[in-house]
Each structure stands twice: as structure tokens, then as C-alpha cells.
Fold this protein.
Amino acid sequence: GEDVEQSLFLSVREGDSSVINCTYTDSSSTYLYWYKQEPGAGLQLLTYIFSNMDMKQDQRLTVLLNKKDKHLSLRIADTQTGDSAIYFCAESPFRNTPLVFGKGTRLSVIA
Amino acid sequence: DTGVSQDPRHKITKRGQNVTFRCDPISEHNRLYWYRQTLGQGPEFLTYFQNEAQLEKSRLLSDRFSAERPKGSFSTLEIQRTEQGDSAMYLCASSPGTSGGTDTQYFGPGTRLTVL
């Protein structure tokens, strides 16, 4: 079955870059997403990437996809205290289908 | 449009009681999803709709759970005879559900259920 794995915690200093990693098992995963969740809140879409792409950049966010290793990463440049949250990797094999989420990576930014 | 809304935001109930949650999707979004999130976990899929048709139900959705989307707009999720294990955040998401593009899902703020 589908499975998405993430490391649970990451701590970085303000101004440094953060790299959050994710691995997935379903080779047919076509759409891969990163969501951010702040305490007590819903999920905020950060970015997404298609499986036919290797990289996507959006302002401070860079997503890298290694399809061979089924590895996805999210890099946040110049990390700020407001970036402290839980980051979820999610995948779906087709459009318009439910997402499969990892357990989330809690990012702590130290001032 | 301000996004997906959910009501109530918090619900405390006693074991055995019935509860109902409401989700209002982004206007003109055809697809509506329900997920459940427990502490320390990622969201898990429960069920989803294309307009008023319920397309799929997860095995997590026991017979105590029922969801409807009667007019293809808002949706309700009802839990009958609540159990302590039902305590969780219930998240609703919507997407355009049309051809083309990513069909990205946008989430509401969630309803946090506590069963005493």
C-alpha cells in the first residue's frame, strides 16, 4: 500500500536554510504536495510538484524530487521564526483522488 | 470567497452521544473531502464527494459514521454513539474537481472533537 515517511523533528537557527525530507513508496505517485500546519489550525498548501519535474522553486521554497529514490525534499531559505510549524508531505497517484500524508515534520526555528 | 469553512471549531461531547459537523467548501468546488487527524499523525482520508455523489469511503469510516452532501454544496459528517477513540481533528478539504491543472485540495480550519 501507499506509505509516506518523514523525519519527525528539525531544529534550525533563524536565517539558516531548512531541509525537510520525505520518502514515498508508491511509484505511481504523480502529484506530490507540501502542506504547513500551525498549532490548532488546518493545513495550508505551500507548494506542489508533478512527477515529471525534478525541481520547483517558489520564492523561499525549493522542492526537489528524486523519482528513482522516491525522495522529495522541501528547502526553506532564510528560515524565520514564523516558519515554525509542522510540515506534511502528501502524495496522490491521480488527479482528483484522496491524499496520503506523512506524519509530519515539526520545524522549530531558534532565534 | 474566504476559503473552506467548518462548524463548529470545537465540540466536546459525552461518550454515546451523536455529533454532526458541517463543511462549506470553496464556491464552485466540485470535490469535497473529509479527513481525520489524531495527535502526532498526518491526516487520514475518510470519504469524498464529487458534487452530491459519495465516491469512496475509507475502511476507517465505520458504520457509526455517515456523510452527506445533499445539494452538492455544503457537507455534513455525523458520528453516532461516539466513542473516546473518535476524539480527533476532523478536516474538510475541497478542490475544483475539473479537468486540467493539479486539482489542489484546500483545507478548512478543522473541527476538534473531544469525547469524554
Residues 51 and 72 of chain B are 4 Å apart (CA to CA). The mean pLDDT of chain B is 93. Chain B touches chain A at residues 4, 6, 31, 33, 35, 40-45, 48, 50, 56, 58, 91, 93, 95, 97, 102-110, 112 (CB under 8 Å). The radius of gyration of chain B is 14 Å.
